[in-house]
Amino acid sequence: MLSETILEMKDISKSFPGVKALDSVDFKLRKGEIHALMGENGAGKSTLIKVITGVYEKDAGIITLQGEPIHFKAPEDAQKKGIGTVYQEIMLCPNLTVAENMFIGRSHSSFVNWKQMNEKAVQLLESLSIPASPVQELSSCSIAVQQMIAIARAVDMDCKILILDEPTSSLDEDEVQKLFVLMRELKERGVGIIFITHFLEQVYEISDRITVLRNGKLVGEYETSALSQFNLISKMLGNELEDITKIKKHEPVVSDTTVPVFESKDLSSSAGVRPFNFNIQKGEVNGFAGLLGSGRSESVRAIFAADKVTGGEVRIKGKQVKIKTPLHAIKHGIGYLPEDRKDDGIIDDLSVRDNIILTLQVMKGFFKPFSMKQAEAFADEYIEKLNIKTPNSNTPIKSLSGGNQQKVILARWLLTHPEYLILDEPTRGIDVGTKVEIQKLVLKLASEGMSLTFISSEIEEMLRTCSRLIVMKDREIIAELKGTELTENDVMNVIAQGGKTTCAHR
Amino acid sequence: MKKILGILLVLVILGSGVLFAAGQQESGLIKVGIVNLPPEESGYRQANVEDMNTVFSTANGYDAKQTNTMDNSEQIAAAKGYIRDGVDYLLISAANASGWDDTLKSAKDAGIKVILFDRAIDTAESNYQAALLSDMAYEGAKAVEWVLGLGLDPINLILIRGQMGSAAEIGRSGAVLDAAKAGKLNIVADGTGGDSWSLEEARKVVEAAIAAGKDFNVIYAENDGMAQGAVQALEAAGITHGKDGKVKVIGFDFNRFALRNVQSGYWDADMQCNPRQAAEISKWIKSGNIPSGIIYQEELLLTTDTITDALIDQWGINADPGKGVITR
Amino acid sequence: MRTSIKNFSYLFLPLSVLALLIIINLIKGADYFSITMVNGALYGNIPNIFFGAAELVILSIGMTLVTAASRGQDISIGESATITSAIFVLFVLQAGEVTLFTILVGFLFSCIAGLALGAFNGVLVSVFKVQPMVASLILFTGGRSIAFMIDGKLSPILANDISNKIGTVIPGVPIQTPIILTVLFIVFFAVLLKTTNLKLYVETVGINPNAARLNGINPKKIIFLTFLIMGFCTAVAGFIAVNKAGRHDSVNLLKLIMMDAILAVAIGGNSLGGGKFSITGSIIGAYTIEMLNRTLLRLEIEPAMIKVFKAIFIIILMVIASPVVRLKIRKVVDKVRSGKTAVNQSKGSTPLSTANIARKKEE
Ligand SMILES: Nc1ncnc2c1ncn2[C@@H]1O[C@H](COP(=O)(O)OP(=O)(O)OP(=O)(O)O)[C@@H](O)[C@H]1O
Ligand SMILES: [Mg+2]
After folding, report:
1. Chain A residues contacting C, CB < 8 Å?
2. B251, CA 20 to 30 Å: which among A138, B70, B103, B156?
3. What is the value of ipTM here, to two decimals?
């Protein structure tokens, strides 16, 4: 198969203070192929694409686009040359409308009037079945919708190259399929697509070729069909992955008389979840399942009082308490890793150290700062434990790779040793190796007596860790599933039927 | 809710008070509309507004309304309001010298006599009856005359100007610059206290001159605050000043603290800028004999020799620190 | 080692500007740093700068915190200081005999007033979500009239011995009192920052209020707190200013000082959009502005042009400080540091040649 090369990168190097992010990397993209770029967190994937589009200036190397050497000074130049990009961190303006975000600043978007722009937006939104109105403010859309809008913005029917950096991290199966349909269509037209993801199934479903990076170095380029999943993982990690299926679920001993660690009755919040009842036992791991927008995140946010609580009552270990603000929740031993890392999680200009100790520091009190030594010790401990890739704990968190930022936020909550920890999409953007580590960690914490709620768009992941699944639809709990033998299909069926069943499965 | 009700209640009470006041119509009083700048503008204005209040009072036979604002268009609107109200006299100290033609003409058409005070307006002289002003050039000339008469040879002067381009700065600086051009004195340092006629800035001007090793024997500060700042710089540097000192100091404006400093020999002289035009204007109105065109006020220069308690009391403005008290 | 270099680069701008000003002054006169004793106190250019910048330094510290947390600026600080000092003067004068005690109590009252004014702005900004500049516009517009009323429509005189000592020198102490007060204030803040989490909280709120809330920090409280601190700063600055002046001039006291305070924050390398901050930078920035003002006078620029020169200087400064230029400078520095990479870089834009790559492979 001799297809035409559209983009070629040779000997690309890029260093940041303390890190060699790319070290003499070669990369080749052909016409009409979908090329997966794989590697652990911090391997240099995002850096590579940012070097292409001119966000970063490369230190060395040559990039040619259809034989022409290129050197973009700014991302807009890349867009003008027919390279559409969706970056890992959504780079849209939250206070502009959906339509404005889709068109403003794009090369040939000289719309004369708003009406015309909105009409075009409606078409595009419909073709991708994005549930948003063009005149709605972007910030009012969920992250998944925002991500779809970012894709819509990048996709130009006559672009030559489309770059997607973890576009599917917050999408669920249906939306992923919609995206794949679009990608295949573009591929037919001869567009070259670079696709970054940590979901191996997706790689095998859609990609033609795989390039693997490890620690900023090129490991190799492979035909997808010729590389087994097992081999791919070992190439990414540099060693073999422990068999996921060996992980043993931990079942808490629950009797009718056990008092739940946390219990809510008719809890509701300003984000619009129906009043719901919920409880969790000591050492239990449970999860919220449901499609995007079904109210999973809103429910846990209500528990943590992240949104304004509008009604209901809450008991901690049987005692009724008031949780009106996140601080109350934290003080009652509840931790919450938010779904939206960028807006709700990281303090981007602060160091990794400050980001890790933040919540523990808040718990300790305004007048009792940790000594620098103590803070550094905490940070270093978790940098080591979670294998966070950073030059040192003083590095600003914003210069870490997406997955490593996620680990920092996780470290922040683990450091507070909560009794009940809510993890909303903790593995988003996290590589396969670390995903397994996190799942193991969740089970280990549970066996030590911590209660956890684990939410993930990957139902598989929840099935592996949770002993109870709460299924939601239309902002309402429709079922509760228990049992060790649950399968993804069981869950999907319940969601599809939308029946009101509270019985245990099987 | 209670709070809101409370606030509403207060507003209603205030509002009705205003209505009541507006509704009051006493006959036999001379109706006067005064358009002025607000007291916050300067120490001068504080005295000026106060003076207008005391002279144009009901006790003196006036039904006077005042609008004090820094905004020229608000001033014009107020003036138009007074014209509609049918006042007998309209007294104006304009924020801006231009833009008044229409208003003045409509006053004239309504038979209202317009008297400008303190600040002139760029318009034909026929558009108003009279203007009672301070002659800044005269003030400068008189102060320079005093400097030249000190018998110093040579005269090395530090000039500390006010807000650049203001009428007072142009007039008061002009006399010094002319004298320097004529070779009668040397300006060794030329600085400004900036838009706020700042004491601190004046102090820095003198400190810079001292740091540069300038030899000087006169400080000519275009207001009292700046003279004060200049003297603070001298004090800190251990340079003598005042009656028996090396450096002679003159300020402007006749603040009482400045006059007391002159009286104590801490400074040497102060030049008046008289904010009290009300009495003179009232005299014109009462006698029915109003002059036309620009009239300049008589203004004084007081030195350590000529100053008296009575003069301080009569002509000074602002708080009096008391006899013998020096404001450093 | 690494941190010290990092901190240095943070302060690179203010320090280099300061160095430039010192060089200009040294060229104008080699005795720039000379200090003599006058009437038992140190006298010279340097003491003059420290004396002159006292209020500005104190207000810049407050402005830094407000900027960092609220992502905006308080433009009413000069007016607040005028009100607090009016209250101080009112108390001292009505107390009759002026003793150290009355001065201290007066100062205490002015601090309470300062806190109240800070609280006023703080509530508008934190609870009612008014933009800081707009919120403080209220006091900025009306503040001097309020002070004028407190003054009893006069400019009261504070000619007493203790005030004089606070405004100049205490016999036997070789350093002017305002300088000592400034140092005490800075030490107070250093201790405050060391013994509390003020910095962490303020920066977190300024960078990401949403995340701050979810981690148990109440952004409203922190923003309110910074305005309270600002209020305290205005009380101290007003206290020093009015004792320096010896009388209360509600019209001109610390007029337009917010301009210089905001500038000091910016020169100090702080973003006016909030977030991370450096108080050290702002303090150096404040002294830099004071020195700049004096340097312009020293250069004997004519009064009509002095504002223009200051503006030009500040524009140049801000351009140099802008992220775009900083990034460019860093790139140039990087290139110079690694000459080899620079060669490859420049060849990156020439057509791909195999010889070129081969050569690089050899290296
Ligand atoms: N702006 C930056 N400043 C400093 N270091 C950076 C910057 N951007 C990336 N890095 C570093 O470069 C390395 C590669 O980062 P990159 O974002 O390319 O990883 P990635 O492969 O995309 O990882 P992930 O899967 O987590 O998104 C990381 O070690 C990261 O810390
Ligand atoms: Mg990445």
Report:
1. 10-11, 57-64, 69, 71, 304, 306, 325-327, 330-331, 336, 338, 343-350, 354, 358-359, 361-363, 365-369, 392, 394, 412
2. B70
3. 0.86
